[in-house]
Structure formats: C-alpha cells, structure tokens
Amino acid sequence: MGLVGVLGESARGYAWLTIAAGLVAGGVAVGLARSGDRGVAAGVAISAGFGLAVAIGLVVQRWATTGWPLW
After folding, report:
1. Res 30: pLDDT
2. What is the DSSP string of the chain?
3. What are the tens digits of pLDDT across the range 11-57?
4. Could you give the CA distance from residue 5 to residue 66 in angstroms, rounded to a whole number?
5. Which of 1, 27, 14 is nearest to 61 (CA)?
6. pLDDT tens track for 46-58
7. What are φ and ψ of residue 66, in 5° steps?
8. Rounded Cα gap, residues 19 and 12, in angstroms
C-alpha cells in the first residue's frame, strides 16, 4: 500500500490506486484463505483494510476542505 501511495500524483490518483490495490489484496487474501494459509490471509486483509482507511481519511479531509476529490 505504501508503494501505491507513492505512485499517486494527486489525492484523486492516490485514492483510486489505493482502492484498486485494496481490491487486489482482498482477492489475494481470499486465495490464501482457500489454500489454507489463514494467518497470512488475515494479515493481508488487516493491512489492506488499514491502507484503505487511510485513503478514506484523505478523501474525507479533501472533501471537507476543497470538494469531492474522486471525480
């Protein structure tokens, strides 16, 4: 999630890239859970959830100060 954050050039780009990375991480977590590695799947899901929470915080902050940043 940190690498994805560096790639975003603006708040909009950061938010969309983080959402995409969160979806990919969710798919990876499901695949890991199905293959039996539930501990790693839980770690991936927790870290992806934290990264998405940071992105949501950024969106809410930008929305409160300058307007809706995702469009």
Report:
1. 96
2. -HHHHHH-SSHHHHHHHHHHHHHHHHHHHHHHHHTT-HHHHHHHHHHHHHHHHHHHHHHHHHHHHT--TT-
3. 888 989 999 999 999 999 999 999 999 999 999 999 999 999 999 99
4. 20
5. 14
6. 999 999 999 999 8
7. -125, -15
8. 11
Using CA atoms, how far apart are residues 10 and 43, in angstroms rounded to an integer? Answer: 28
* CA-based R_g, the chain, Å: 14
Residue with tokens 């695949």: 31
Q: In this structure, what token pair is assigned to residue 41?
A: 């799947």
> Which residue in the block uniquely carries the two structure tokens 């954050």?
5
Task: Report the length, in residues, of the chain.
Answer: 71
